[in-house]
Specification:
Structural class: mainly alpha
Order of helices and strands: HHHHHHEEHHH
Number of helices: 9
Radius of gyration: 19 Å
Helix content: 55-70%
Strand order of the largest sheet: 1-2
Shape: elongated
Number of strands: 2
Distance between the termini: 63 Å
Strand content: under 5%
Amino acid sequence: MSNYRNDLLEAKRQYKAKNYAKSCKIYTRLYNEIPFDNSAKYSYAWAVYQAKVRNYASESQLFEDVDLITNLTKQNDLNRTKLCVYTMSVFKVFKLLYHNNEYESLPYWLDKINPDFLDEVRFTRDGEIYPSNRESYYIYSSVTYFKLMEYEKCIAISAKALNSLTKFTADNGIWFEWRTPNH
C-alpha cells in the first residue's frame, strides 16, 4: 500500500509540474490496480483532461477519454463553482460534433448534462460576446433535435431555453422563438 500512496503522490507532483501525460500514465496504472476514492478520481479526471482531452489527438480517443471522465466524476453546479472537468470535457465533444454537423451523435452527449447546473455567465473575447454554458447547451440541443427532425424535443428545449435564460447572445432568443409553435 505504501507504493500505491507514493505513486499517487508522484502523480500529483507530476500534475503540479504540468507533466500531464506522465501524471495521467501513473493514475491510469493505479486506477487499474486499486479502486480510487473521489479525490483521486477527480485528480485522475483532471490529468486525463489536461493530457488528452484539451488538445485531443483523434475523435475516437476524445470520446473514449471523455467517457472515462464522465464515469470518474459527476457534473458540478457551475452556479456554485467556477470549473467542472466533467462539463468542460462534455462541451469539448459538443463543439466538435456540432461544428462537424454530426447531429446524430450529439443526443448521447446532451443527455450527460443537466442544464440547471450550467451557469449563465457570458464572456467576451476580442470585443465579441459569447453565450453562457447554459445558452450554449440549449443552442446545441435545439439545433440538434431540429436537424434530426425530432420536433417535439426541439420545441420543448427551445421553450425551456426561453423560460429559463435571462439573457440571450446575438439573435439566439429569436431562434429559440422560431423553433417553438407560437412564433
